UniProtKB/TrEMBL annotation:
Native species: Bifidobacterium tibiigranuli
Localization terms from the record: Membrane
EC number(s) stated in the UniProt entry for this protein: 1.3.5.1
Family: Belongs to the FAD-dependent oxidoreductase 2 family. FRD/SDH subfamily.
MF annotations from Gene Ontology: electron transfer activity; flavin adenine dinucleotide binding; steroid dehydrogenase activity, acting on the CH-CH group of donors; succinate dehydrogenase (quinone) activity
Cofactors demanded by this protein: FAD
Domain FAD-dependent oxidoreductase 2 FAD-binding: 11-423
Name of the protein in its database record: succinate dehydrogenase
Pfam families reported in the protein's UniProt record: FAD_binding_2 (PF00890), Succ_DH_flav_C (PF02910)
Fumarate reductase/succinate dehydrogenase flavoprotein-like C-terminal domain residues: 548-670
């Protein structure tokens, strides 16, 4: 679905159509400011852009629940949820943000229900709730049922409900459009619009906007084994970096403990809340050794490290599909869950195991291992979703630019996210950002009465002597598309050029290795003996191969544990090989329309840009906290690192203090 008419100026462009983007659209349209504007005859011009059909957004794969202190099953208090969120994030959480999250969680869930989300029910008809890792009663004393759920398909319910409400409210979508550029003014203090590529026609569009909200999801495809769908390539985060802004806390990548070996497919935390138990090769339930009070429902980073520790002690098991392979998994024992209850509460998990593992969890143990799941860091935002730049100890708001959901960082998750808080973050702060946009676009643009929204802004821009930066960026992107197509590797001249360039990069990596600096090409490129045989392969380098090799390199560098050597090794390979290969990629087809490889090339470039920032932020933090465990700095260091890393593409890492209100840092145990 493409818009029938592309406006000269939009009041708001929302990039991304998952829970955060759709919540922002509804928050905007339902706000009192827009209702008043409509009563005065002004209709906002809004466009939601998605590189997927919205109902394919990754929100639909969320399984276990959305956290809220509804108290439908047992007494709960939002203050307890607030405490658990701060503790779960290892005290890197901004406590003002965590208060908002916990206090408005019940309202958010109830509004989702009223919008059509069909939650599972208690016997008396209330929204059902289940236990989730790290959620407790009475400030950590005992696990509590806080996660509202819909069997194990809550994301599907929420996504469909939000999308249907957007359709009912007349939201205009541009589906399967890829945003290639975020355009700011020359001082990087205000947004001007975006550039988007229509994959159906091959057209590049210059889209001017008063406000832009990025809700593009996470970056799980940085890693080879991940629960994330193929489209989560960190696009919004990379666009912000390319525009000259910063990302916050990018060293914190959550590995979910229970990914189905070795596919990475998520097996929800709900399994353990319903009675599933993790066991090692001896059949021992080992989590009591690591988290005596919470066991299998400790925070995810704690459980993931425990699994890795069991494997390193020689207590891992192989994937039954590869019995002679590495013993890098442990067992998930679901045999204690009654089959009927399993079918009712965990139907998707049951289907996944049967389909992809050929096992029956009612009688078979299931092999699992940690898998990249969630990006805690992202685009730094205020409580109202405003993007800012940290400079000289202050937050400088980028006027008109907003973000929400996993691509953003309001710092409500800190160093580790609790289960159930992701959907809540996306819906709650997405809604808040939408309401903030509504207030902004209905403000008078001059001091003379109410603006007619877009029209007044167009006139203001026409009187501005500055260059039309959006159109300039669009022309530059059109030239990039033509270059990617005209220098297609189907051309013999182009193939010769790519061969010489790619071989030079491989030789550089090999020379670095010979000199004692470790490089990390993939197995197909890491031997001098194979360099001649790989010449033909180099001709056909493609973004999919590069992204696969990048995922393997990042996994070796950062998965669950890391140290200075693993980080440096990955940075060397990224600098000497991957980044230049990403820039040298060309399309194998000469048509722009329906050319999936064009999109993949941009995604590969986004991932290499992001990988550098993730590695540099990880290298800069000389401590272990939350999901970041450094074997060379094993302790948390509040004296030096109770702060958020702020990392731009070509600048040193800066540090922003954490917002501490009423919960000073404590020891974090489960």
């Amino acid at each position: 679905m493409s818009p029938e008419h592309v406006e000269e100026m939009y009041d708001a462009i929302i990039v991304g159509a998952g829970a955060a983007g759709l919540s922002a659209a509804l928050g905007l349209l339902r706000s009192p400011a827009i209702q008043t504007a409509r009563e005065n005859g002004a209709e906002p011009k809004i466009l939601v852009i998605s590189k997927l059909q919205p109902l394919r957004s990754h929100t639909g794969s969320a399984e276990g629940g959305i956290a809220a202190s509804l108290g439908n099953v047992e007494h709960d208090d939002w203050h307890w949820h607030y405490y658990d969120t701060v503790k779960g994030g290892d005290w890197l959480v901004d406590q003002d943000a965590a208060q908002v999250l916990a206090q408005y969680a019940p309202e958010t869930v109830i509004n989702l229900e009223r919008s059509g989300a069909a939650f599972s029910r208690t016997a008396d008809g209330h929204i059902a709730q289940r236990r989730f890792g790290g959620h407790t009663a009475d400030f950590g004393h005992a696990p509590i049922r806080r996660a509202a759920y819909s069997a194990d398909r809550v994301g599907h319910q929420i996504l469909f409900a939000l999308w249907q409400q957007c359709v009912a409210n007349g939201v205009e979508f541009a589906e399967e459009w890829v945003v290639t550029d975020l355009v700011l003014n020359e001082s990087k203090g205000a947004v001007r619009g975006i550039v988007a590529f229509d994959t159906h026609t091959g057209d590049v569009h210059a889209l001017h906007a008063r406000t832009v909200l990025l809700a593009t999801g996470g970056a799980g495809r940085l890693f080879h084994t991940t629960t994330n769908s193929w489209d989560l390539t960190g696009d919004g985060m990379a666009l912000v970096l390319e525009a000259g802004l910063q990302l916050e806390d990018m060293e914190f990548i959550q590995f979910h403990p229970t990914g189905l070996a070795h596919s990475g497919i998520l097996l929800s935390e709900a399994v353990r809340s319903e009675g599933g138990v993790l066991r090692n090769a001896r059949g021992e339930a080992f989590m009591q050794h690591y988290a005596p009070e919470h066991g299998d429902l400790a925070a995810r980073d704690v459980v993931s490290r425990a699994i890795i520790d069991q494997v390193e002690q020689g207590l891992g098991v192989p994937d039954p599909k590869d019995p002679d392979g590495p013993h890098d998994c442990v067992w998930l024992d679901m045999t204690g869950i009654p089959t009927e209850h399993m079918q009712q509460s965990l139907p998707q998990v049951l289907e996944t195991i049967r389909t992809y593992a050929d096992l029956d969890p009612s009688r078979d143990y299931v092999p699992i291992k940690p898998t990249a799941h969630y990006t805690m860091g992202g685009i730094p935002i205020s409580l109202d979703g405003e993007v800012y730049r940290w400079h000289e100890g202050t937050r400088g708001i980028v006027q008109g630019l907003y973000a929400a959901g996993e691509c953003s960082c309001v710092s409500v998750h800190g160093a580790n996210r609790l289960g159930g808080n992701s959907l809540l973050d996306a819906c709650l702060f997405g809604n808040r950002a939408g309401a903030a946009i509504a207030r902004k676009i209905t403000q008078p643009i001059t001091g003379e009465g109410d603006a007619a929204i877009s029209d007044a802004f167009v006139n203001a821009e026409a009187n501005n002597a500055n260059e039309d930066l959006v159109s300039v960026s669009a022309e530059r992107r059109r030239a990039d598309v033509q270059q990617l197509l005209s220098q297609s590797v189907n051309s013999s001249d182009s193939r010769d050029g790519l061969l010489s360039g790619h071989n030079a990069e491989i030789n550089t990596a090999n020379e670095a290795t010979d000199a004692g600096t470790t490089a990390m090409p993939s197995d197909s490129h890491d031997s001098d003996d194979n360099s001649t045989n790989n010449s033909a392969d180099n001709l056909d380098d493609n973004p999919y191969e590069l992204m696969s090799e990048l995922g393997e390199a990042m996994e070796r560098a950062l998965a669950v544990r890391c140290d200075a050597h693993s980080i440096a090794t990955a940075r060397t390979w990224l600098r000497n090989v991957a980044s230049s290969r990403a820039q040298a990629l060309r399309s194998h087809a000469s048509a722009a329309a329906f050319n999936q490889e064009l999109t993949a090339i941009w995604e590969a470039r986004h991932l290499t840009t992001l990988a550098d920032v993730v590695l540099r932020a990880s290298d800069a933090r000389h401590e272990s906290r939350g999901s970041l465990y450094r074997t060379d700095f094993t302790e948390r260091d509040d004296e030096h690192y109770l702060a958020h890393s702020m990392t731009a593409a070509d600048e040193d890492v800066l540090w922003q203090p954490v917002h501490i209100l009423d919960m000073p840092p404590q020891a974090r145990t489960y």
